[in-house]
TrEMBL record:
EC number(s) on file: 2.3.1.30
Classification of source organism: Bacteria, Pseudomonadati, Pseudomonadota, Alphaproteobacteria, Rhodobacterales
Name of this protein: Serine acetyltransferase
GO cellular component: cytoplasm
Family of the protein in this entry: Belongs to the transferase hexapeptide repeat family.
Length: 269
């Protein structure tokens, strides 16, 4: 029987929904019972479940599950915002990804969501001056999920990375709130220069598959970057850029491109 958490719906409706979905998943497919119980229903909170998932996915012969679990538990306890942001990210994936039909899917199956939550633990470690541990997390996230986010990068809440294969986000990159990006996106530098050298992505931006945004440039709020584009210059707010090199080809087409996920360009562009 699923573990009961008294009054959980009153204090944490997101986690309550995850637990309800988990119980239903076991009812429909009993063979998933062991995995679902250990990953979700065994835990008293979403934070504890995320710590468990972090440890299970990133453990290796170099650092085992127990130590990684302790690291993540410490991070979630010391920084409650990590758990809050994890819930916002979860709802953002559910809202924007048409392949996501339940809250439990990102936690169990979606490497974009799992990679971002692991990055957030690494970023917390970086902020605590524990940089070798942060680099270890970055390395394992890259090896396990194919997502390479430097722990010093700053990523806002409500971020959705769809498919998430071959994502690269550099050290001085900044990603705003409610940003959506697809696979093979690079937020990178342009050479060997040191210092502030990576893109600054505004709030509500949508970045299409395979897009490369390079250098210390600014992408304005609520803009769209078309798939396959190479962006080398600032992007105005509420605009669409496309091409190699990218140029402004029109307005964003809606108030919230990252939420609408409309990747089509007008036929007359």
């Amino acid at each position: 029987m699923a573990k009961k958490h008294p009054n959980l719906s009153a204090v944490d409706p997101v986690w309550q929904r995850v637990c309800e979905e988990a119980a239903e998943a076991i009812r429909v497919e009993p063979l998933m019972g062991g995995m679902v119980h250990s990953a979700l229903l065994h835990h008293a909170s979403m934070e504890r479940a995320l710590s468990f998932r972090f440890a299970m996915k990133l453990a290796s012969s170099e650092m085992g599950e127990q130590i990684l679990r302790e690291i993540a538990d410490e991070a979630y306890l010391a920084e409650p915002e990590l758990g809050q942001v994890a819930r916002v990210d979860l709802m953002s994936v559910y809202d924007r990804d048409p392949a996501c039909h339940r809250y439990l899917q990102p936690i169990l199956f979606f490497k974009g969501y799992q990679a971002v939550q692991a990055y957030r633990v690494g970023h917390w470690l970086w902020g605590q001056g524990r940089r070798d541990l942060a680099y270890l997390v970055q390395m394992r996230v890259s090896e396990v999920f194919g997502v390479d986010i430097h722990p010093a990068a700053k990523i806002g809440r409500g971020v959705m990375i769809d498919h998430a294969h071959s994502i690269v986000i550099g050290e001085t990159a900044v990603v705003g709130d409610n940003v959506s990006m697809l696979h093979s996106v690079t937020l990178g530098g342009t050479g060997k220069e040191d210092g502030d050298r990576h893109p600054k992505i505004g709030n509500g931006v949508m970045i299409g598959a395979g897009a490369k945004v390079l250098g210390n440039i600014h992408v304005g709020d609520c803009s769209r970057i078309a798939a396959g584009s190479v962006v080398l210059h600032d992007v105005p707010p509420c605009s669409t850029v496309a091409g190699v090199p990218a140029r402004v080809v029109g307005e964003a087409g809606c108030a919230q491109p990252a939420v609408m996920m409309d990747q089509l360009l007008d036929e007359d562009i």
